[in-house]
Specification:
alpha/beta; 22% strand; 6-stranded antiparallel sheet; 35% helix; Rossmann fold; 26 strands; Glutamine Phosphoribosylpyrophosphate, subunit 1, domain 1; binds 6-O-phosphono-alpha-D-glucopyranose
Length: 607
């Protein structure tokens, strides 16, 4: 949730840290700070607010060769200057930044206070600084290793000490840390976006590892000081992918990128000759795939709704029972692992703690869990038993858009693969492929008519409550449409199966509560039209996302956005894009910060 950056080398650390924090701001953004080594001591500058406020507080001549920085999303302690990271020890010589939660901080704080340590903040993180101080004897790395076993909870910690200058120590347990290797300079960050302007060479730390870096090299060990040799990996993202590239914000850029990102998710994975799909990283034999009896999908947020679409497809195409479950619920419900069951953990970031820990719980009980992730080298991607990258490129806006359409692309491919091993004919496989390949153009068609959605948003943005209604494979799309609207515009919105409105939501309908209906040209269309009439009869305003050529609907509803026709199972792609744009333009109309909506974070690494 929070972002971390550390630097040591010949360039000005202050500048590198602030630029890195700017790139990490999407992860957490209520306060920020840096600590740099300056003339034998540390200078700490921190503030509540955004990086631009931090920048204003930093003197232009503050030049240093090492330092650490942090952008915070508050968990313990209110948002103010004092609770912002870095935190220092009593001497002011040691500074730490921390992502995660220290669960036993109260007992550690009592112990440290009784030993004379004075605390200044309400955070759990400050105890880390004092605990390391307790063990510090001119060797920061040694002190960190002595302190770590006492911490319970999750952490990515990075620290520096004025008496051990020019070096940085990092430790990971549940919160990601990556070492960036430059020429005579080193970086340490929570996320590669902070460092790709400087280097493409990265080393990803695993849980239980500690790294000690200086400008010319780094050493990784476990907490018992046993040396660990790490592989240097190449970062595949390009700098331009994490820039707005002429768009006013990342969310618009990412919505508009979807024709390309969907193509990337299917690229090299379609086999036209055999009318099937190839997914290289599944690590499952043909026999295992054929013997599958069940699929379960765990995820959170938008990824969960993509998982719901995926489950629908798996039941509809290869006819395999599939169940989507919220990762946060799976983790604590003592899940039952059945034989011949395959699990998918779906996560854009690959770091969502609920999904990661649910996956570990399932694996501990012997389940096979595959990841569907975007971020290469992320925790879920590394710790899963195999998986498929969606290759969306970096998603920076907090509200997820392009990841959703890429995640469902992978589910179409996996469904096709399984179906062709079972009872889907060659020609039916070919037809699915043709429909899938035609999707990017259809998405482009929808995107090209953004103006119409903008006008609709201007007309409706001032309503306080919305319903989003869809059925079948489009039911999760209705949930996602409602989620997008509430996330970025703060308008209250509920998603439902339109069949369910009679069981409650219809009580909300009046002139002040518009409904957005998803109306494909499938066998449920007539039933949806009946639901629309029920809403209209109660004076509810209705926006319909309907298929080109559906003239009847225009006479019934208040506003229509037409989408191109497709195979009935492929509507989620084309239905979700107008909902993303509608939410986006509503948020703009209301003057919201679209990329960084209040209280939210891109990757939720705390429970
Ligand atoms: C946060 C983000 C959402 C995202 C969810 C799951 O809530 O704000 O946009 O859908 O986490 O994230 P993941 O990275 O696991 O897909």
């Amino acid at each position: 949730m929070c972002g971390i950056i550390g630097y040591c080398g010949p360039r000005n650390a202050t500048q590198i840290l602030v630029e890195g924090l700017k790139r990490l701001e999407y992860r957490g953004y209520d306060s920020a700070g840096i600590a740099v080594g300056l003339n034998g001591s540390l200078k700490v500058i921190k503030t509540k607010g955004k990086i631009k406020e931090l920048r204003q507080k930093i003197p232009g001549d503050m030049i240093s060769s090492y330092g650490i920085g942090h952008t915070r999303w508050a968990t313990h302690g209110v948002v103010n200057d004092i609770n912002a990271h870095p935190h220092t020890d009593c001497s002011g010589n040691l500074a730490i930044v921390h992502n995660g939660i220290i669960e036993n901080y109260e007992s550690l704080k009592n112990m440290l206070e009784s030993e004379g340590h004075i605390f200044h903040t309400d955070t759990d993180s400050e105890i880390i600084a004092h605990l390391i101080e307790k063990y510090f004897n001119d060797d920061l790395e040694k002190a960190v290793k002595e302190a770590l076993p006492l911490l319970k909870g999750t952490y990515g910690i990075v620290c520096i000490h004025a008496k051990d200058p020019g070096r940085i120590v990092g430790a990971r347990n549940g919160s990601p840390l990556v070492v960036g290797i430059g020429k005579d300079e080193m970086f340490l960050a929570s996320d590669v976006t902070a460092i790709i302007a400087h280097t493409k060479k990265a080393v990803y730390l695993e849980d239980g590892e500690v790294v000690f870096i200086k400008p010319e090299d780094f050493i990784t060990t476990d907490i018992n000081d046993k040396k660990i040799t790490k592989e240097i990996e190449q970062i595949t993202w390009e700098l331009q992918e994490i820039e707005k590239d002429g768009f006013p914000c990342f969310m618009e850029k990412e919505i508009m990128e979807q024709p390309e990102s969907i193509k990337r998710a299917m690229s090299g994975r379609i086999d036209k000759e055999l009318a099937t799909a190839h997914l290289g990283g599944l690590n499952l034999s043909t026999k295992e795939l054929i013997n599958l009896e069940r699929v379960k999908i765990i995820a959170a947020g938008t990824s969960f709704y993509a998982g719901m679409v995926g489950a629908y497809l798996l039941e509809a195409i290869p006819r395999i029972p599939a169940i989507p479950e919220l990762a946060s619920e799976v983790r604590y419900k003592n899940p039952i692992i059945e034989k011949n069951t395959l699990y998918f953990a779906v996560s854009q970031s690959g770091e969502t703690i609920d999904t990661l820990f649910a996956m570990k719980e399932l694996q501990r009980k012997g389940a096979t869990v595959l990841g569907i992730c975007n971020v290469v080298g992320s925790s879920i991607a590394r710790d899963s038993d195999g998986g498929v990258y969606i290759h969306s490129g970096p998603e920076i806006a907090v509200a997820s858009t392009k990841a959703f359409t890429s995640q469902i692309t992978v589910f179409y491919l996996f469904s096709l693969l399984l179906a062709r091993m079972r009872d889907l004919s060659f020609s039916a496989g070919e037809k699915l492929i043709t429909d899938l390949i035609s999707i990017p153009l259809k998405v482009e068609n929808v995107l090209s008519r953004w103006q119409q959605l903008k006008e609709m948003a201007i007309k409706y943005a001032h309503y306080k409550d919305f319903l989003f209604l869809g059925r079948g494979v489009n039911y999760p799309v209705a949930l996602e449409g409602a989620l997008k609207l509430k996330e970025i515009s703060y308008i209250h919105a509920e998603g439902y199966s339109s069949a369910e409105i009679k069981h409650g939501p219809i009580a909300l309908i009046n002139e002040e509560t518009p409904s957005v209906f998803l109306v494909p040209d499938d066998e449920l269309r007539e039933k949806i039209i009946s639901n629309i009439k029920e809403v209209k009869a109660r004076k509810g305003k209705v926006i319909a996302i309907s298929v080109e050529g559906d003239e009847e609907i225009k006479d019934i509803v208040d506003d229509v956005f037409e989408i191109p026709a497709t195979h009935e199972l492929f509507y989620p792609f084309i239905m979700v894009v107008p909902l993303q744009l509608f939410a986006y333009y509503c948020a703009l109309e209301l003057g919201r910060n679209v990329d960084q909506p209040r209280n939210l974070a891109k990757s939720v690494t705390v429970e």
